[in-house]
Amino acid sequence: MTSERAAYSQEHKQYLRRIRRRKQLILLVQVLILICGFGLWELASSAGWINEFIASKPSRAWAAAVNLFNRGELWRHLGYTIGETVLGFTVGTLSGIIIAALLWWSDFISRVLDPYIVILNSVPKVALGPIFIVWLGTGLKPVVAMAIATSIIVTIMMVHNGFKTIDPNKIKLMRTFGASRLQIFTKVVIPASIPTMIAALKVSVGLSLVGTIVGEFLGSKAGLGYLIVYGGQIFNMSLVMAAVILLSLVSALLYYLVTLLERRVVRYQD
After folding, report:
1. Same domain assignment for residues 224 and 145
2. For residue range 28-60, what is the model confidence (pLDDT) as tens digits?
3. Nearest-CA neighbor of 113 among 149, 166, 157?
């Protein structure tokens, strides 16, 4: 019996070791692809395979980012973009979840608003930018409004669909025991919809960042979107590429934070 346990323990350790090595290999390949991509970009630009003035190169993009840092502007632009995105994402997702709950609660309201939600989802959010600028002026407000507009409708649709796909037998069982609609919602619908809401958060955080950048394109004096537009206007492609790379890092950071939240929620449920 002891030998069987020892063999099982050893086999389990080998399995965990294989899983760990696989994760390390995946990370290594990801890093190598990134390094090779930047290296090929640098080589192609330096060797004249591509036009350096149009495509810039990593070393010049790095120099542009360092220049922003030395002038004390880097953290200001990053702070604007991250702050606007987080604010728009938070308001958009919370409002979307609340509206989705309202639509689940009242089938009449759901049927009335369904075509309007579909239409709003199909409208390109870029078209709303000039409207927000006229209504709210330039600066923080229209940018946050764009971030909210790009995330709230998708959140409503995803979460509401998640609510509607709950096993009806569980709801019938709760009703059989005399549970109220509020108890059904809090005890059955919400816990069962956690994966759907996490998926909505993952989609919404990227859309909020897109909305923020579009808002900064149209009417902002700070942020990574502003740097991209400004760099394009003065034909400083190194500044544009630096802003795009920083934007990619911000996107990865926000997605990682949502993934970290998912892990904590899953661990709490277990």
Report:
1. yes
2. 998 999 999 999 988 998 888 888 888 888 999
3. 157
CB contact at 8 A, 144 and 215: yes
Integer CA distances (angstroms), 238 to 26, 46, 52, in order: 31, 14, 9
- Residue 24 · residue 32 · CB < 8 Å: no
What global pTM score does this model have? 0.85
Query: Can you give the residue range of the structural domain that contains 13?
Result: 1-50
Say which amino acid occupies 127. A
Q: Which two tokens mark 251?
A: 């996107």
What is the average pLDDT value for the chain, to the nearest integer? 86
CA atoms within 13 A on the CB side of 18: 6
Query: For position 234, which CATH number holds?
Result: 1.10.3720.10
148 exposure class (CB count in 10 Å sphere: 0-12, 13-18, 19+):
buried
Q: What is the pLDDT of residues 98-136, one digit of tens each?
A: 999 999 988 888 898 888 888 888 888 888 888 888 888
How many angstroms separate the CA atoms of 66 and 43, rounded? 21
